[in-house]
């Protein structure tokens, strides 16, 4: 497989895939990162066309691990040099990526992905072979998705010790707005609010650290994911602000924040006891397999080992 972009996610992927015994090579635009990857024993180049030509020769799975703003340019290179390779990505938004892949005429061999794992650090040195262990990895089941490419991408996630959540791109984006992009904006607001209060940083402990952890992420990455998911983030933001506005009014009028605190606590308890049944019965490639997997993913189901594929013995 060929990893394009050897930062936190691409670099972790390269380490995890190599650890699983896969042949993996990659591209990074910075000479320093390529030198660091080579020093660590990995097969890396700063020549994108060379990496993609090699991928085309081997029919390797190409994984795009660059931020959203860099994707159109990378997709143009893939179209020119390796248009027939199976293709996936790790981008935190899926609808906007799908639009770009369609524009680049690469949809038939593309299956979107999003490992739900990360840290606030960037670059090759931040990578960790164990980053995906136990994490959810969304593998898209949009209408166009090819069974063979889907199985390749799913196997990659399983090799990295993740569990696979099948989901449609639009549903992924609505969920990502709620559990990732909105928390990023709230964390920034919390950090700003505390930063304006004398003594606050001197007293800050666990609540502040946990509530603002993601505000330490590089601003470019936060902007890239929030702005690329504006369609789904705007209604989530509106709902979050509405809840806070109601709590503010209740506090001013009645002295109580009970409504928000009790419904928030109940929702968090539901999350803590959320079950993750294993998806085992779907045969990939049969009639309706994508809709079946999307429904199972929506219900909390996860794939922990490869599913049977129609026409593949064993
Ligand atoms: P990173 O900054 O660590 O790595 C980004 C990589 O992309 C670097 O190798 C950089 O050189 C390369 N790059 C950036 N712009 C480029 C350009 N114009 N041309 C060529 N290469 C370019 O970031 P990351 O956290 O690894 O993020 C990569 C992708 O993973 C993003 O799409 C992000 O949405 C996704 N993602 C991030 C996280 C997270 O927590 N950081 C989690 C899941 C998915």
UniProtKB/TrEMBL annotation:
Q: Does the keyword Oxidoreductase apply?
A: yes
Query: Could you tell me which PROSITE patterns the record lists for this protein?
Result: PDH_ADH
Pfam families per UniProt: PDH_C (PF20463), PDH_N (PF02153)
Q: Which GO terms describe its molecular function?
A: NAD+ binding; prephenate dehydrogenase (NAD+) activity; prephenate dehydrogenase (NADP+) activity
The kind of enzyme this is, by top-level EC class, is oxidoreductase
- The EC number on file is 1.3.1.12
* InterPro entries on file: 6-PGluconate_DH-like_C_sf, NAD(P)-bd_dom_sf, PDH_C, PDH_N, Preph/Arog_dehydrog, Prephen_DH
Which GO BP terms sit in this record? tyrosine biosynthetic process
Ranges for domain Prephenate/arogenate dehydrogenase: 1-282
Q: Please name the NCBIfam families in this protein's record.
A: PRK06545.1-6
Regarding protein family, the annotation reads: Belongs to the prephenate/arogenate dehydrogenase family.
Q: Kindly provide the name given to this protein in its UniProt entry.
A: Prephenate dehydrogenase
């Amino acid at each position: 497989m060929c990893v394009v972009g050897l930062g936190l996610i691409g670099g972790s992927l390269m380490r995890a895939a190599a650890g699983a015994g896969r042949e993996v090579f990659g591209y990074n635009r910075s000479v320093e990162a390529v030198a660091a990857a080579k020093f660590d024993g990995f097969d890396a180049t700063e020549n994108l066309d060379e990496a993609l030509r090699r991928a085309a020769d081997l029919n390797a799975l190409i994984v795009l691990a660059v931020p959203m703003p860099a994707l159109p340019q990378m997709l143009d290179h893939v179209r020119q040099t390796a248009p027939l390779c199976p293709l996936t990505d790790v981008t935190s938004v899926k609808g906007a990526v799908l639009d770009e892949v369609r524009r680049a005429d690469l949809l038939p061999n593309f299956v979107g992905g999003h490992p739900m794992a990360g840290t606030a650090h960037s670059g090759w040195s931040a990578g960790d072979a164990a980053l995906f262990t136990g994490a959810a990895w969304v593998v898209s089941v949009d209408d166009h998705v090819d069974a063979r490419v889907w199985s390749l991408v799913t196997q990659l996630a399983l090799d990295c010790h993740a569990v696979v959540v099948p989901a449609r791109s639009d549903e992924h984006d609505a969920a990502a707005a709620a559990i990732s992009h909105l928390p990023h904006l709230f964390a920034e607001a919390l950090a700003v609010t505390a930063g304006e209060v004398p003594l606050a940083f001197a007293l800050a402990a666990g609540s502040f650290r946990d509530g603002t952890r993601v505000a330490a992420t590089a601003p470019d990455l936060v902007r890239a994911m929030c702005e690329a998911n504006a369609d789904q983030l705007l209604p989530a933001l509106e709902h979050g602000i509405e809840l806070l506005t109601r709590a503010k009014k209740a506090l001013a009028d009645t002295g109580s924040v009970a409504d928000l605190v009790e419904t928030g606590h109940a929702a968090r308890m539901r999350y803590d006891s959320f079950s993750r049944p294993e998806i085992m019965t779907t045969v990939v490639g049969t009639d309706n397999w994508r809709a079946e997997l999307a429904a199972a993913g929506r219900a909390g189901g996860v794939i922990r080992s490869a599913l049977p594929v129609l026409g593949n013995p064993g």
